[in-house]
Design goal:
Chains A, B: Pfam families: PDH_C, PDH_N. Chains A, B: It comes from Methylophaga nitratireducenticrescens. Two copies of one chain form a homodimer. By secondary structure, chain A is α/β, with parallel strands linked by helices. The first copy, chain A, folds into two domains: 2-174, Rossmann fold, CATH 3.40.50.720; 178-289, 6-phosphogluconate dehydrogenase C-terminal like domain (6-phosphogluconate dehydrogenase C-terminal fold, Orthogonal Bundle), CATH 1.10.3660. Chain A contains twelve helices and nine strands. In chain A, helix 6 (154-166) links the parallel strand 8 (143-146) and strand 9 (170-173). The interface between A and B is large, with 93 and 92 residues.
């Protein structure tokens, strides 16, 4: 049971955690803060939070648990502003999609309270955002990865793990660097690829007419290009080195496919396409993954 | 009403047309041919076809309408083998995803019967293939593009149009070259991008573990990488010039994103990602497209 939860950022990620814990009856009071007054009021009206705070200081000063669910580029500022107002027993955790950058920011901003911080990443979401996108089932049977570091307080880690389990998630621990590479491969790079395709088509004069002939394959492929631009700018810059490395590999793969098409090398294409098909068919036959739906 | 329909290739595309026309009571007899005896027997057992042919000659010799639904690399051979056995009034149409190559093959192989050929492309499908994947509703509210050329017999064009409408499709006509560019942009390039990503991840030693953390966004993005490798080899080689041109544009876009990430140019990323999001949100709010589902 959490007595007082503070949600910094009342959108899909923060709002859905609040709703899940409220529905389970495992939180007494939820205070929400957002830079946007409209978002605060919307979250209040939707019953996501019980009261709004006018400042970060006010939001966290009485909280037992603080969940920071803002775009990664805003995390350091949030940490700096809440640091002086955290009680010794207050736990802070976050939902950032790349962990090294958030950990660096927290270490710098929280100073001697850094041990109260538990880095986390709920691997769940949709391409929608804002309070109205939040729903209590978002985390059910989804994975939440925690990436504690040497300083992380062990009992804080246990409490954050419990909180996510109570919200319905399967909680795993992972090394920071490994997390950042895995997520770059399965989430960050695919977003860049989809944004790039749709962005390129959007620049065509005949975009509307072209997309009229796009069908389900394109729609699924490009769904993640509907994701929030600020959030994804921050992720790209925040997980720069892992993303750049994978992007290099990806481009080298594209080079080879391009060369094969140019040289009429059908065997190479069959080899690559077949390998991809087998990997995907095998891996996603796993029922375990069927209901996952991160953006 | 079609008296005798011959389906060359009894998989998802050919089989679904046969099932749709049968269900509508608009075909008297369907003969199916596949190189694979197992596929022929499966199609017969599933009621997709009424009888099987042992050869292409046998399949088409009594047909009024011939639908060629084989991978594009096999089309020329099929055209060559059926040409001597087509009656003057027999209409031939196809389901190839790139039209110029099929038209060139048909022109060469059909000779003075080329006017009996109506080039077509049903923009529908799933990532599955084979007779068991066929279903009668596949084409309902999906687009079928016909790309007639100067020689195409006008009444043959009308009959093919009617056939697809009877199968539930919305039929459009398009210039060959325009079709090939539009489909390269919305279908062929996305397939290459998805195959390349999944193929790259499949080569990692930690592939299984990495994909364990992949969620819905990745699954949707990569669904088209489950498509048939032979079919997509043929499309890549068959629509080479349009695909290579778009691939160049795509790579140049990736270059710019990579540079922006490297140089911490968040404004550029916001610009591209935001443009993509707006284009997709606007275009796919169109209810018209909601039920389309080509691979």
């Amino acid at each position: 049971m959490i007595k007082h939860l503070a949600i910094i950022g009342v959108g899909l990620i923060g709002g859905s955690l609040a709703l899940a814990l409220k529905k389970a009856g495992l939180v007494e009071q939820v205070t929400g803060y957002s830079r946007s007054q409209a978002a605060r009021e919307e979250a209040l009206a939707l019953g996501i939070i019980d009261n709004t705070a006018e400042s970060l200081a006010e939001a966290v000063s009485d909280a037992d648990m603080v969940f920071v669910a803002v775009p990664m580029g805003a995390m350091q500022t949030v940490f700096e502003q809440i640091a002086p107002h955290l009680k010794p027993q207050t736990i802070v955790t976050d939902g950032g999609s790349a962990k090294q950058q958030v950990i660096d920011a927290a270490r710098q901003a929280l100073g001697n309270k850094f041990d109260q911080f538990v880095p986390g990443h709920p691997i769940a979401g949709t391409e929608k955002s804002g309070p109205s996108a939040a729903f209590s089932e978002l985390y059910q049977q989804h994975r939440v990865v925690l990436t504690p570091v040497a300083e992380t307080n062990k009992s804080a880690l246990v409490r954050v793990r419990q909180m996510w389990q109570q919200a319905g998630a399967d909680v795993f621990e992972m090394e920071v660097e490994h997390h950042d590479v895995v997520l770059a491969a399965t989430s960050h790079l695919p977003h860049v690829l989809a944004f790039n395709l749709v962005g390129m088509l959007a620049q065509r004069e005949d975009c509307d007419e072209v997309l009229r002939y796009a069908a389900g394959g394109f729609r699924d492929f490009s769904r993640i290009a509907s994701s929030d631009a600020v959030m994804w700018r921050d992720i790209c810059l925040g997980n720069r080195s892992a993303i750049l490395e994978l992007l290099q590999q990806y481009r080298s793969g594209l080079d080879k496919i391009e060369q094969a098409i140019r040289q009429d090398d059908g065997d190479y294409l069959i080899d690559i396409f077949g390998r991809a098909k087998r990997a995907r068919d095998t891996r996603f036959a796993d029922p375990d993954l069927k209901d996952n739906s991160e953006v």
